[in-house]
Design a protein that fits this description.
Layout lengths: L3 E4 L3 E6 L12 E7 L1 H11 L4 E7 L3 H12 L7 E3 L6 E7 L5 E6 L12 H9 L2 E5 L6 H16 L3 E5 L12 H11 L2 E2 L15 H9 L5 E5 L5 E5 L2 E5 L12 H14 L4 H16 L11 H10 L6
Parallel strand pairs: 1-4, 1-8, 2-6, 4-5, 8-9, 9-10, 10-11
Antiparallel strand pairs: 2-3, 6-7, 11-12, 12-13
This protein binds adenosine-5'-triphosphate (ATP) and magnesium ion.
Keywords: ATP-binding, Kinase, Nucleotide-binding, Transferase
InterPro entries: PfkB_Carbo_kinase, PfkB_dom, Ribokinase-like
Family: Belongs to the carbohydrate kinase PfkB family.
Amino acid sequence: MKKIVTIGEVLVEIMAEERGNGFLEPITLVGPFPSGAPAIFIDQVAKLGQPCGIISAVGPDDFGTVNVERLKADGVDVSAIAVIPDAVTGSAFVRYREDGNRNFIFNIRQSACGQVSLDQGAEKMLREADHLHVMGSSLFSDNIVTLIRAAIGQVKEKGGTVSFDPNIRKEMLDFPGMREALVHIFENADIFLPSGEELFLFTEAKEEEAAIAEILTRGTKAVVIKRGAEGASYFDTSGETRVPAFAVEEIDPTGAGDSFGATFVTFWLRGVSPEDALLMANASGARAVGVKGPMSGTSTGAELQDFIERHKGIRA
Ligand code: ATP
Ligand code: MG
């Protein structure tokens, strides 16, 4: 089986219990929950029984332990998560606003994950990797951008594949060099997994069909568009495969895109048809939105099969 590797932030998420406008008065918080887009992604890959690992860093503290133990228990190779003395594990405090948007206080760039490096553990993991997944959210410092570019070079050189979920926060687009880094990763990705406006990040075209056509002429083998409650589509040069979402109540959208992407990439690497891979990925996304907590909604293959059985005929 192919080994999937990702690089990026491991952090804890601490959530406000009630909705509101931020953190200007004392409120009830719940957490820490293991989190970080690449961490959620790789946890979902592991739960499907695929060999996988993450290159990251934490501090020698309980927040780091919460994450590492969780990933390890689910089957992720954690040998390339460095524990950095004198550094603190990344964190995000989040509060939902009344309109459902999220308001964050992040400690990522200044945390242990700001000091990730291609040390021996990371180099070994890259040698074992058949596939590298990159999250736009992980491009939070020059250091990690350089590292991700090097990792892409190594994996591609030995015939491996790359997937890219732009998953970028708006304020990150203004970082110096960010645009160029994104374009480089995009141009090296075999699968591109945008949602919403992210489809147009690299295109002249401003409309879906033309944007897809443009992307497929630039070396990308496949585009997977995540459409939230509308499901998802897969495009390659032979056309579109669209699969509707499952009808579920949205409790917490955090992690849906990451779980979806992990499930899609895993089944794609196993050679499953785009339609079946989308069905599994939609089930994975739907299960993720149905539970509170960023990594609480990751699923095993058996849980996905069972969910699909129970929801037959009641697609959204
Ligand atoms: P994220 O907010 O995690 O970055 P995203 O924007 O990358 O998410 P979405 O399209 O929101 O991705 O969600 C990914 C997938 O999860 C969807 O394609 C769909 O399969 C499933 N999903 C998301 N929201 C819902 C929903 N409300 N009902 C059913 N399925 C959903
Ligand atoms: Mg997303």
